[in-house]
Amino acid sequence: MSSSGSAETVEVLQLQVKDEEESVEPSMSEWSSLVLDVEAPNQKKVLYQQGLYDPGSGEICAAYIAQSDSAVFRHVYYNYPCILDPGISHALLGPAPRPIYPDDGQELYLTLCKQMNQTPVGIFHRALLGDKADLSYYCVNPYGIRAMTKSLINNKTLTSINLTDNFLNDDACFHLGEMLMTNTVITELNLSGCRIGPSGALRICAGLPNNKVLKVLNLSGNQMGDAGTDHFAQAIFSRSDVQEVNLSNNGVSGKGVQTLAEAIVWNNNITHLDLSRNLLFSFPSGLCNLLVELGNSEILKYINLSWNSLSGTKISGAIKQIFKAKNLQHLDISNNKLSTTEVATDLTVFMAKPKKMITYNVAYNPISSADSILFINKLQSNLVKIQELYMDGITVNEDFIKVLNAMKRLRNKQNVEVTYGYVEGLHKVTSPDPRETTLNRVEYICKKPKKNKIDIALVIYQLMKEGSKILEIKEFSDALKSAGVFLDDELIAELAYIFPGPTSKKGAKSVDVTKIGEYMMRKWPERKLPPTPPPEPEPVVVPVKGKKGAKGGKGGKEAKGKGK
């Protein structure tokens, strides 16, 4: 046991000594990296001498530096390039990246509404994927217009916006004008009844010159006045490409129209112009200048001047110039005060000039029936291409109807539509016959009871047969009551009024029963009294036989003879 234990102890001591010897670091003279082979040349030096090797900066690896970090004036790792920044510094110190939204604008619209604390309009949000946004009568918040217009910057599908009767303030009008400067898709903008006023018109029209896509602009019912019309005229002067314009119901006078006429001289792209329901009767010179310029247009198709109280030969002479527009198709001058023969002549003299004209509306003007025939006489010419002539509210005569019927028989005029008002001398107003009405009432009263129905005609015939031709009102009423006919005093008085008899000296009115009977015979010819039976023969008295010479016998003979 002792021998084995000592052997194991010796073995352990030997292992410990061996481990201590291996852990001792060799001296620097024994480092393999410092043992230089003098005989073998350095290949790098050889290549360096040949110009084929570049040793670099000449610095040695920091791992072979015997000095500590505190003894080095500059840390050796700074001489080597550091790792490039993957973007951490920019992410922490730089601005946030600008988000990129889809072109349809739906996501951008919701984001802007959230930033502005505005409720999104669902109809508009869905319409961004279509071609039309109808927000008419929707009570849109004017401060939400900014989010709508910003979302349309890159939209490529929405072409029409309808904001009818949504009250828009100046801020909303500013953003709409800003949208028109950049949007290249929207072709129709309807702002009817938005009450934008002159200031709103200024902000919207500011974006029109830069927009070359918008073609239809509706500014009706916006209280623009002459000042707002001046702003629109300035946009036209600045080369706006709007073609269809509606300026109706804006309180525009002839002065505002004058500025529009001056702008059209330089830039005339208007094909449809609506100036109805304005104040064009004031300062007529401005309107005349506009109509003359529009008459020189090569593209004008539609013009509406209705409800402007236009009158006089000066205005009619200017309207006459509109017919010179080669492409004119629709002309509406209805509901004005054009009345005289000279005016009617001006309105008809150039009807044959426009070869594409379809509708001519002169309805509800105080044109006389004698002057109205001028229109139909001109219309029946083959040179006139008008298909619809509206003259509602204008009185015509029988000659007008004859010419119209003759024109309808022409082959190329069969589809022409002509409307007119009252026809003089053709229609006669007739009132109902009071005799018919009164007797129908009496007949209804007599037939109303379920039992004991009475025929009034037979009652009257019976009175005539009995010789009652003229009866006072009281006598006539008593006669009807005795026959079972009970009429009120007012109805009896009505019969006395429509079938009167002679008045007595005391002023009492009477009823002519004969007249009533004659009218009833024409009204009810099938009603007749039953025939009167023949009178019965008198009874024959048979005499009683008596003695001869007796008084009774003689009397009997006489009675018998009389009986024969």
Provide a brief overview of the structure.
The chain is of the alpha/beta class and 564 residues long.
Describe the structure.
The protein is an alpha/beta fold and 564 residues long. The chain has a domain at 434-523: Arc Repressor Mutant, subunit A, CATH 1.10.10. Helices cover 40% and strands 7% of the residues. It has 21 helices and 13 strands. It has helices at residues 2-23, 43-49, 88-93, 106-116, 122-127, 145-151, 170-182, 197-205, 225-237, 254-266, 284-295, 313-322, 341-348, 369-379, 398-408, 434-447, 456-465, 473-482, 489-498, 513-523, 551-563, and strands at 132-134, 160-162, 188-190, 216-218, 244-246, 272-274, 302-304, 330-332, 359-361, 388-390, 417-419, 470-472, 510-512. The radius of gyration is 58 Å and the shape is elongated. The N and C termini lie far apart (207 Å).
List the helices and strands and how they pair.
Elements: H1 2-23, H2 43-49, H3 88-93, H4 106-116, H5 122-127, E1 132-134, H6 145-151, E2 160-162, H7 170-182, E3 188-190, H8 197-205, E4 216-218, H9 225-237, E5 244-246, H10 254-266, E6 272-274, H11 284-295, E7 302-304, H12 313-322, E8 330-332, H13 341-348, E9 359-361, H14 369-379, E10 388-390, H15 398-408, E11 417-419, H16 434-447, H17 456-465, E12 470-472, H18 473-482, H19 489-498, E13 510-512, H20 513-523, H21 551-563
Parallel strand pairs: 1-2, 2-3, 3-4, 4-5, 5-6, 6-7, 7-8, 8-9, 9-10, 10-11
Antiparallel strand pairs: 12-13
Structural descriptors:
Arc Repressor Mutant, subunit A, 40% helix, eleven-stranded parallel beta sheet, 564 residues, two-stranded antiparallel ribbon
